[in-house]
Design brief:
324 residues; 13 helices; globular
């Protein structure tokens, strides 16, 4: 997918990456200390190079710019958002047993320690130095809520925890608390840093929250429907196609879902036959529409609006996992 105003998106991504690098370089107490955190920046550099539309980079800047022009403080807050994302992503990588090569030579414990030192220490340290008290409170609330989303994500979908809602409700709750709340955090930091009023902040939150949910749904559907999916199926994670297939029921489906790795090809075919992929597109389209409606109500310069629409199209694009 072509990025509208790709040069702007790339320039901003590189500036935010550099801000993140400065935060780590200035905060660490020795070169040895820096060496423990530099793999995080290496992962960030690769991801920014692969996709300058990263929400952790673009959302805080777009949110800030919806209030007033960008400045150094906006870049600093975006740098904090990027470091937070990379730390959370490192936790996800360890949980999913998908630690990227930039961490080679470091144990899982080292990776977790590096990640936790970022969002349990460095993020709060830098926000306090900036006297960004509203942002500090926002981070604390968001991380607590996101931790519950992570618990939901890591709980095998077959588990029989008490008072569980339907699988679809549980999955959508996870998507809201995990990716949705994460994206909302990035946007809120940018907006509060710019002094957004309540009306503007509400629109920014609405855009980011629904963008995050749509992105999570798209990614998880790709993991199920694409032949070379990720580790969600192997790790027994609940995804929207699994929830919808379970609701559809039937003896053969129920039996296959109990041994999903072995029967994944049959389940993919059954999901397409029952129209599950089309249902998934419909759910994603609802969240996309909510995000687009909020975005269209925000005041943004035309080039930045182009970047925002490109991000929305990329994160929730049908083309990511084929047609219905």
């Amino acid at each position: 997918m072509a990025i509208v105003n790709a040069d702007l998106a790339t320039a901003r991504a590189e500036a935010v990456l550099e801000a993140s690098r400065r935060i780590i370089e200035d905060a660490c107490q020795s070169d040895w200390h820096r060496s423990k955190l530099r793999p995080l920046l290496a992962v960030g550099a690769r991801q920014v190079g692969e996709s300058p539309l990263m929400p952790a980079v673009q959302l805080p800047l777009l949110a800030h710019e919806s209030v007033r022009p960008l400045d150094e403080r906006a870049l600093e807050l975006a740098g904090i958002c990027l470091l937070s994302y990379l730390a959370i992503d490192a936790f996800d990588n360890v949980a999913d047993r998908e630690v990227p090569p930039e961490w080679d030579g470091m144990s899982a414990s080292d990776v977790l320690l590096s990640a936790s030192s970022i969002f349990a220490g460095l993020v709060y340290k830098r926000l306090a130095e900036l006297r960004a008290w509203d942002a500090t409170a926002e981070v604390a609330r968001a991380l607590w809520e996101m931790s519950y989303g992570q618990f939901l994500d890591m709980t095998p979908w077959q588990s029989d925890e008490p008072e569980r809602p339907s699988l679809r409700e549980r999955y959508l709750q996870m998507a809201q608390l995990k990716a949705g709340r994460q994206f909302e955090l990035y946007a809120a930091l940018g907006a509060t840093g710019a002094g957004a009023d309540e009306g503007n902040l509400s629109l920014i939150r609405e855009f980011a929250l629904n963008l995050g949910i749509a992105g999570q749904l798209t990614s998880d559907c790709a993991d199920f429907f694409l032949p070379a999916g990720g580790k969600d199926i192997e790790n027994g994670k609940l995804t929207l196609p699994i929830a919808l297939l379970s609701e559809a029921g039937g003896g053969d489906v129920a039996s296959a879902l109990q041994d999903i790795e072995r029967h994944i090809d049959d389940l993919r075919a059954e999901a397409r036959r029952r129209g599950i992929l089309t249902l998934c597109f419909g759910v994603i389209a609802c969240y996309r529409a909510r995000a687009r409606s909020a975005l269209d109500s925000l005041t943004l310069p035309a080039p930045s609006r182009d970047v925002a629409h490109s991000m929305l199209d990329f994160l929730a694009a049908r083309s990511l996992f084929g047609g219905a």
